[in-house]
Write a structure and sequence with these properties.
Elements lengths: L1 E7 L8 E6 L2 E7 L5 E5 L13 E3 L2 E3 L6 E3 L15 E6 L5 E6 L8
Antiparallel strand pairs: 1-9, 2-3, 3-4, 4-8, 5-6, 6-7, 8-9
Length: 111
């Protein structure tokens, strides 16, 4: 895994998201209540809704198009719907507050 700095933890508001791009993939980084960060691909598996625009509740995000509920910990869609989105490891450097996205080797920050 490669560690990519994608911003500062202060740039993500609680229960909101920030978008970053890695190798042409749009990734939404969410800040949960309590400050934990989660990162997932920013497309609902149903109709490609922008999950970054969804409502965050606990450790789930609700797709803004059709209200599919997606677990931010593992990317799984809640039943009765089916599917999943790609998840990414995310950390915050204690000393700097920088958000570190864990990506597969060979990926690079596109914007």
């Amino acid at each position: 895994m490669k560690r990519v700095v994608v911003g500062h933890s202060s740039e993500v508001t609680e229960r909101r998201s920030r978008i970053v791009h890695v190798d042409g993939v749009e990734i939404a980084i969410f800040k949960l209540t309590g400050g934990k960060l989660r990162a997932i691909e920013n497309l609902c598996p149903h109709k490609n809704g922008k999950l970054s625009e969804g409502i965050v509740c606990d450790h789930h995000v609700f797709c803004p198009l059709h209200d599919w509920k997606i677990n931010l910990n593992d990317g799984l869609v809640q039943e009765p719907d089916e599917g999943c989105v790609r998840t990414y490891g995310v950390e915050v450097e204690e000393a700097t507050g920088n958000i570190i996205l864990l990506v597969e080797q060979g990926s690079s920050l596109a914007s």
